[in-house]
Amino acid sequence: MRISVAVITYNWPQALQLVLRALARQTELPFEVIVTDDGSREDTRTMLLQLAQDYPTRLVHLWQPDDGARMSRARNRAIAAAQGDYVILLDGDMVAERHFVADHRVFARPGCFVQGSRVLTDQALTARMLAHQRTSLGFFERGIERRRHTLRVPALAQLYAHAGHRQRGIKSCNMGFWRDDLLRLNGFNEAMTGWGREDTELVARAFHAGLLRRDVRFSALAFHLYHLTRKQLVDNPNDRILAATRQARSVRCIDGVAQHLTEFPRPPAALAAGTAELQQRP
Questions:
Q1: Distance separating alpha carbons of residues 123 and 112, to the nearest angstrom
Q2: Contact call for residues 204 and 246 (beta carbons, < 8 A)
Q3: 49-87 residue pLDDT tens
Q4: Exposed (0-12), middle (13-18) or buried (19+): which is 129, by Cβ within 10 Å?
Q5: In the CATH hierarchy, which fold is given to the domain comprising 3-255?
Q6: Which one of 89, 224, 241, 276 is CB 3.0 to 4.6 Å from 175, fit for a cystine?
Q7: Which long-range contacts (CB under 8 A, 24 or more apart) does 69-72 make?
Q8: What pLDDT digit, counting tens, does each position of 263-281 carry?
Q9: For the packed helices 123-132 and 13-24, what is the interaxial angle rounded to 10 degrees?
């Protein structure tokens, strides 16, 4: 079982650098880390070229032009390019605890996807983490919410792992899917742009296809770096797409990952320091 970690990013290279350093320090390295970039400026690529000089696993950079928030498209390109049997979806502001990849492997089951949790950090703690390149936090750390999510207790984690159809708490910032299941669903719905609901819509189709959800708590820990959010968006058009998906009990979206498979007839080249041509652009 090869694991690909798909990290989505946009114009926050300082956070992305910390996320990638945390993935480089895993007790079990993933087969590859794919940074899928929704149109960041040149400073993100410069940082990646520097980091790639001694990165301990395959590191790929996929870039698409900045044409508004196109998270679904960016993630679909990573899924299309992935060589892993299993894909962990991670946001570029989620700093993984050192057992993160190994824990996801333990929780992977056929016919299921895994929904992970996150520790929320406040602005001051995020600044400290970035300044000191900290990739782990303790239970008593100042400046965190959801303190229980700092606890890694594998035995207790199994009690929360029963499979079901719970729809609350869907977050693609920490989620694991078998790649074949993502292809069967046609990945994320690219009709959904802007903030939110694309992960919930994907899960709705996963449930329609017969997949079950396994929650991973007290395991696969990740620390979310503070930033402003757009959660209060009113009259989000993505809500209407989600409602239509649920009403029709759709399994596959129309505009999804399938249209990107021909972009990668061969695996994209790993990022290597000083080689500008290896940045994968559509």
A1: 35
A2: yes
A3: 999 999 999 999 999 999 989 999 999 999 999 999 999
A4: buried
A5: Spore Coat Polysaccharide Biosynthesis Protein SpsA; Chain A (3.90.550)
A6: 89
A7: 69/10, 69/38, 69/193, 69/194, 69/195, 70/38, 70/39, 70/190, 70/193, 71/8, 71/38, 71/188, 71/193, 71/198, 72/187, 72/188, 72/189, 72/190, 72/191, 72/192, 72/193, 72/198
A8: 999 999 999 744 444 455 5
A9: 60
Q: How far apart are CA 81 and CA 84, in angstroms?
A: 9
Which pLDDT score, from 0 to 100, does residue 89 have?
98
According to DSSP, the residues that pair with 213 across neighbouring strands are 113, 164
For the stretch 218-237, pLDDT in tens is 999 999 999 877 555 667 88
How do strand 32-37 and strand 58-63 relate by DSSP bridges?
parallel
Domain ranges, ordered by start, for the chain: 3-255
Angstrom distance (rounded) from CA 167 to CA 201: 10
Which amino acid is residue 247, in one-letter code? Q
> Which amino acid is it at 122?
D
Q: Which residues pair with 34 in a beta bridge?
A: 6, 60
DSSP class of 280: B
**Eight-state DSSP code of residue 172:** T
Q: Residue 274: is it exposed, middle or buried by C-beta count within 10 angstroms (0-12/13-18/19+)? A: exposed
